[in-house]
């Protein structure tokens, strides 16, 4: 017979059970275990029941039982969901949020924030309590240390999972055991151990035995770490119980953080630090986050500027030119660059520079000439490395700045220690006159040109050689900051991104810039190196979105081929470009955005805001 | 001009007469019997260190062809032309190949 029940506590109803069906399926429980709703279409059997604590009757007679029902919309969620259960109220524009869950999560958050009164008012006003009365009772009993009662209540809460029941019971009994022990009532403790804990027959007899052995030895050195404060026990229990019985701690905060994470991931132009995420609007960086305005033009070179690179910490910029000199620039607090040292000494155009890992020294390479080592702070030339009769064409550091290597015109790679002693020479790689050589930061992998279309990676420890094979001639390449990716420039105006972590794999292609005659370089940059930048023969600086390959910007300004670009590793808003028009341009955010950065910046955004 | 990227060839090399940039190797010669305004020219399978100009229709001794002039990457001087399309069937073999002037 259908009954309709209103959601109030403590209604007393008579319910008839019918025949064998009920008993065999689920002997009716005597006590307050929440029921969602009483009816499904046909049968009276279709009731939600959880595990009973005691079977009332096992005979097959129709049984009349008096059941005190606590109708609790919350606890009832533990039972089998029934088709005819009352429509749950949904909120939110898409109607996917259950109102009950929403309110309870907010209530929980209010309590965690310390707003006890507000939490209580919310529970009352909404009529949705945070915990069912059973759960409330359970919590109180745990905090008061009424272990035996708490166990009884535990069984009434309505858990389906036997294992959870066991684990929770175990923890409570364990706490009971240690507390009794603490009070030195050893016999009682042993009793608890033997009768109650072992009957749970959980596979934790191992850890139970040892404390008991200690007892037998008359020594109970139960450390304080095993006797937890009751609040901590309650927290642990909360984690074990299903979330609908006890809303997990900081659930609301977790959901919000998740949403922010999704927004951050989806942000296409994201180029500022995390602290700039707000809850008020969906986070979406605009293109204005890319450095696209010329903030400075550096004109100290007298001829084409062929190469430049920011130091590892981003405090300096080094540039090298056809005018046979290299220049070290300093990046000031306000984002302006000033000339620090002019490095004169080479007799040929300076092809490239390389920063030592600690940014204290700089290597410069003259074209088919010599490599010079300079001290960054004094600007002095510390050493000149040469190979008689041959010319050097590239340079780099190894072993945390204790060794250096150089590509030679005879197609070998030569290794020196700082004092000029030649340590090794690699022959057999066919390198062209404009070959690049690169080394990973840990000094393990050396990357060099092997053939026109092939790059060779050699692991110095395992001696394993890997090849990156392209279809077109390779003109230059550069490593990502994390040493896992290689950006390869090809003769056909394409830039390929290779993942070199394990077996090399092509993972991206970037097109749009112009290259037909010169060596043009590209680089990684921006926050988490999410962007790729490159020079171009049409005098523009090109910026692509790294993961999608979309061309984001083509920045005009230079009046000659842009040979090389470098993105400041510690300032995602600073990009430098070197051009045949003898100048270096520093690119940054527009004035408006720079000002905005100032007002919002709390110092965590980046160090050198204006 | 910037830092030139030049490919180096091995073998018997034909280079630009002004700047000596390598252009092609003798192994790639298809025919030595070509002529241009200034005299003889060779047909090569491929060439390096050259850039290709715009396509245009040109009437040559052998008929109408679509060609593009090619320029040396090192000095920019014109060094020959490339056949893009031939209008007559007999001339189709030239498509994609390059003529370098002697």
TrEMBL record, chain A:
WD repeats: 298-331, 343-384, 555-597
SMART domains to which the protein is assigned, alphabetical: CTLH (SM00668), WD40 (SM00320)
Pfam families, sorted: LisH_WDR26, WD40
Domain of life of the native organism: Eukaryota
InterPro entries, per database record: CTLH_C, LisH, WD40/YVTN_repeat-like_dom_sf, WD40_PAC1, WD40_repeat_CS, WD40_repeat_dom_sf, WD40_rpt, WD_repeat-ST_regulator
Keywords in alphabetical order: Cytoplasm, Repeat, WD repeat
Ranges in a coiled coil: none
UniProt-recorded name of the protein: CTLH
TrEMBL record, chain B:
Keywords (A to Z) from UniProt: Metal-binding, Zinc
Entry-linked InterPro entries: Yippee (IPR034751), Yippee/Mis18/Cereblon (IPR004910), Yippee_fam (IPR039058)
PROSITE patterns: YIPPEE (PS51792)
Gene Ontology molecular functions: metal ion binding
Span of domain Yippee: 12-102
Family from the record: Belongs to the yippee family.
Protein's name in the database: Protein yippee-like
Organism per entry: Musa troglodytarum
Lineage: Eukaryota, Viridiplantae, Streptophyta, Embryophyta, Tracheophyta
């Amino acid at each position: 017979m259908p009954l309709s029940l209103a959601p109030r506590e403590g209604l007393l109803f008579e319910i008839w059970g019918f025949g064998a069906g009920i008993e065999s399926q689920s002997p009716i429980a005597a006590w307050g275990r929440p029921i969602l709703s009483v009816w499904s279409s046909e049968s009276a059997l279709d009731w939600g029941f959880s595990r009973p604590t005691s079977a009332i009757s096992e005979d097959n007679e129709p049984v009349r039982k008096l059941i005190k029902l606590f109708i609790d919309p919350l606890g009832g969620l533990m039972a089998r969901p029934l088709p005819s259960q009352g429509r749950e109220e949904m909120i939110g524009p898409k109607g996917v949020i259950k109102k009950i869950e929403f309110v309870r999560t907010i209530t929980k958050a209010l309590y965690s924030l310390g707003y006890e009164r507000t939490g209580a008012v919310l529970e009352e006003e909404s009529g949705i309590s945070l915990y069912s009365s059973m759960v409330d009772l359970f919590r109180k009993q745990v905090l008061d240390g009424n272990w035996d009662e708490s166990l009884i209540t535990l069984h009434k809460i309505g858990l389906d999972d036997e294992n959870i029941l066991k684990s929770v019971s175990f923890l409570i009994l364990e706490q009971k055991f240690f507390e009794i022990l603490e009070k030195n009532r050893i016999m009682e403790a042993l009793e608890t151990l033997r009768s109650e804990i072992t009957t749970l027959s959980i596979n934790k007899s191992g850890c139970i035995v040892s404390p008991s052995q200690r007892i037998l030895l008359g020594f109970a050195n139960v450390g304080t770490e095993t006797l937890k404060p009751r609040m901590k026990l309650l927290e642990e229990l909360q984690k074990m119980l299903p979330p609908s019985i006890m809303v997990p701690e900081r659930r609301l905060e977790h959901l919000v953080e998740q949403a922010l994470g999704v927004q951050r991931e989806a942000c296409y132009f994201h180029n500022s630090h995390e602290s700039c995420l707000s809850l008020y609007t969906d986070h979406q960086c605009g293109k204005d986050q890319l450095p696209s305005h010329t903030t400075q033009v550096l004109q100290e070179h007298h001829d084409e500027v062929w190469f430049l690179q920011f130091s590892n910490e981003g405090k300096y910029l080094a540039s090298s030119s056809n005018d046979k000199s290299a220049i070290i620039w300093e990046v000031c607090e306000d984002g302006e660059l000033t000339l620090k040292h002019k490095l004169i000494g080479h007799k040929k155009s300076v092809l490239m520079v390389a920063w030592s890992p600690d940014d204290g020294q700089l290597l410069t390479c003259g074209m088919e000439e010599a490599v010079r080592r300079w001290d960054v702070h004094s600007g002095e030339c510390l050493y000149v490395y040469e190979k008689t009769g041959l010319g050097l064409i590239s340079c780099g550091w190894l072993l945390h700045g204790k060794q250096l290597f150089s590509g030679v015109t005879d197609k070998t790679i030569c290794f020196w220690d700082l004092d000029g002693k030649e340590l090794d020479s690699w022959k057999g790689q066919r390198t062209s006159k404009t070959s690049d050589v690169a080394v990973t930061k840990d000094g393990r992998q050396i990357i060099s040109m092997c053939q026109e279309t092939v790059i060779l990676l050699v692991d110095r420890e395992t001696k394993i050689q890997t090849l990156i094979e392209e279809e077109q001639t390779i003109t230059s390449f550069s490593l990502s900051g994390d040493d896992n990716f290689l950006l390869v420039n090809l003769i056909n105006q394409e830039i390929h991104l290779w993942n070199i972590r394990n077996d090399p794999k092509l993972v991206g292609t970037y097109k749009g810039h112009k290259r037909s005659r010169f060596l043009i370089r590209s680089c990684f940059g921006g926050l988490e190196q999410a962007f790729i930048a490159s020079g171009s023969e049409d005098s523009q600086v090109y910026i692509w979105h790294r993961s999608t390959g979309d061309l984001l910007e083509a920045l005009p300004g230079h009046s000659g081929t842009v040979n090389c670009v470098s993105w400041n590793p510690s300032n995602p808003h600073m990009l430098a470009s070197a051009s045949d028009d003898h100048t270096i341009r520093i690119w940054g955010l527009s004035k408006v955005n720079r000002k905005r950065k100032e007002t919002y910046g709390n110092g965590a955004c980046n160090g050198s805001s204006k | 001009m910037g830092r030139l990227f030049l490919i180096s060839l091995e073998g018997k090399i034909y280079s630009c007469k002004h700047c000596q940039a390598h252009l092609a190797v003798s192994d790639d010669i298809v025919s030595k019997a070509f002529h241009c305004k200034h005299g003889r020219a060779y047909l090569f399978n491929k060439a390096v260190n050259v850039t290709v100009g715009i396509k245009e229709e040109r009437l040559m001794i052998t008929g109408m062809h679509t060609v593009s002039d090619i320029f040396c990457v090192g000095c920019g001087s014109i060094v020959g032309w490339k056949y893009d399309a031939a209008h007559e069937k007999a001339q189709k073999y030239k498509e994609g190949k390059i003529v370098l002037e002697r």
